[in-house]
Amino acid sequence: MGANEQQLLDNFFAGIARDSISSFIQAVVEQPQLMEGLKEIDLVVGAVAAFARTKGFAFSADDLETFLEDRVKKKLDVAELDLRRVFQDRFDRGKIPAPVFMNKTAATKEHVLDFTSDSDAPCSLDRAEILKGDVTVIRQAPAIDHLTSVLREILEEHFKPYDPLVAHEKLNAVSYKMRVEAAYEALLAEKQIPPILTAFMKEIGVPPDQTVFEWPGIRLTFPHGSEPQGYYRTTCSGSLPPHRDTWYGSPRQQLNLWGPIYPLETNGTLRVLSAYYCRSIKNSSRGYDVWRNAVGLNLPPMLREHVDISNPIAPPLAMGDVMIFAAHHLHHSALNQRKTTRITFEFRLLCKEDKGANYVPPNIDYFGFGEIYKGWFQNDGKEVFHKP
């Protein structure tokens, strides 16, 4: 066989492998049982390829490695590719600390900053205490009330004539998804978001000029047992199992904010499992790659051991309230036991002053590669990279 013929044959088989990988990625999205099976393995390419072969998808670890790296190079912009190279260089030189096993009891406290209080004391958020494991509820901050009003207006505009709480019963899956996508596009274009979040930071004593934020997302959680289970932004997503955001590459100094857009059902608050703040948890993040996940192999790390969910921190939240906790906290969704959709918002904050501080939790169980540098915004609404 000549060189040209061999090249044609190699290209033919490479094409078959690419098609098989694409079919596998799509099947994972559409078939929950595949995702369930993947949580039993590490997300290294060899293990994923071996798992796929047992399900009838014909590609090798080398095929998957090539496919993903090609996607990364084609789909990431130059700035993010440069950040990936910086991370790779730091990783190769041992500058990225390896996970440190920990098994301690955290002394988590709950705090409330109440804007309805008659006290003259300023409502100042203690970020250091949150990053040490405390959880704070902010009640009736004017900017959060404004934010939820804007989010409700967007939802009601795009789901009319139906009430967003029951639209899942009125619309077929295709129509519902189209409305979710249109509402999200409107949210991304909403010029009030940056000034609202800047005002919120000022209200709670977080310096806006030193802080970047994630654009708020809307989570629609359908009643338990529904299919699909709901949406986050434009992605199918239901009640989340216990996880840390840091398993997905979130910075360890990240603050998570979560609250209702419409009234929550009893026991509907997101649940923070504070007992595990200082305890390493078995999970499938080994082999996870932030950038590969963003461009193709969308396999989130999952819990790989039993955890006790019986004693969560889950304070009741009214409309206009928001709960703040560290991304390092193990947390999960409450099942939606109502017949209506649970509709909530969430966003994240990163303050430059917290990076590298001694109160930031160490990496105790993230074995993946990379950190989320993209998707952060300044108070003027300009998207920026969180730099390593």
Number of strands: 13
- Biggest sheet layout: 11 strands, mixed
The end-to-end distance, rounded to whole angstroms, is 50 Å
Instruction: Domain count, please report it.
Output: 2
What fraction, in percent, of the residue positions are helical? 25-40%
Mean pLDDT: 91
CATH topology of the largest domain: Jelly Rolls
CATH class of the largest domain: Mainly Beta
General form: globular
Write structural notes for this entry.
It contains eleven helices and 13 strands. The protein is an alpha+beta fold and 388 residues long. It has two domains: 3-75; 110-384, Jelly Rolls (Sandwich). The strands form two sheets. Strands 1, 2, 3, 4, 5, 6, 7, 9, 11, 12 and 13 form an eleven-stranded mixed sheet that branches. Strands 8-10 form a two-stranded antiparallel ribbon. Helix 1 (3-30) crosses helix 2 (32-38), helix 7 crosses helix 9 (173-188) and helix 7 (142-159) runs antiparallel to helix 10 (193-203). The N and C termini lie far apart (50 Å). The model is unreliable at 1-14 (pLDDT under 50).
